[in-house]
Design brief:
With 99 residues, the chain is of the alpha+beta class. The protein has a single domain, classed as CD59, CATH 2.10.60. It is built from 1 helix and 6 strands, in the order αββββββ. The protein has a 6-stranded antiparallel β-sheet with strand order 2-1-4-3-6-5, with no helix packed on it. The radius of gyration is 18 Å and the shape is elongated. It starts with a helix and ends in a 9-residue tail after the last strand. Bound molecules: 2-acetamido-2-deoxy-beta-D-glucopyranose (2 copies). The site of one 2-acetamido-2-deoxy-beta-D-glucopyranose has 4 residues, from loops.
Amino acid sequence: MGKHLLLPLVILSLLLGFLQALYCFHCNRVNASGYCECGGTICKTKKYQQCYLGKVYEGSTFSFGYQGCRNLCFPFMRRSHKSTLQVTCCNKTSFCNKF
Ligand SMILES: *[C@@H]1O[C@H](CO)[C@@H](O)[C@H](O)[C@H]1NC(C)=O
Ligand SMILES: *[C@@H]1O[C@H](CO)[C@@H](O)[C@H](O)[C@H]1NC(C)=O
């Protein structure tokens, strides 16, 4: 294989890898100021995974949140007596689940 073919191939495989996997912010608890309280990391999606963002509101005030990679993510909103849990999912771009 000629050397001139190598670079396009490398770029192509990088692009394909980029399309398949997504990087998402991962944090088990993000406080009301948007600060990750437990050492945030980054996760990489596998097949069927998406980035998700969970937000918990007390009344109409944002209380805390969490974010990461999730299998078969479905967005939903659940209201209980006083608090609301809202989960959103995204897979368009890496780090799309930021606060
Ligand atoms: C969130 O955490 C940061 C860092 O610990 C802190 O400075 C900030 O006051 C916290 N915000 C709330 C609303 O607790
Ligand atoms: C990406 O998101 C779209 C729309 O939300 C969804 O239809 C599609 O299945 C998702 N892809 C993956 C790999 O989850």
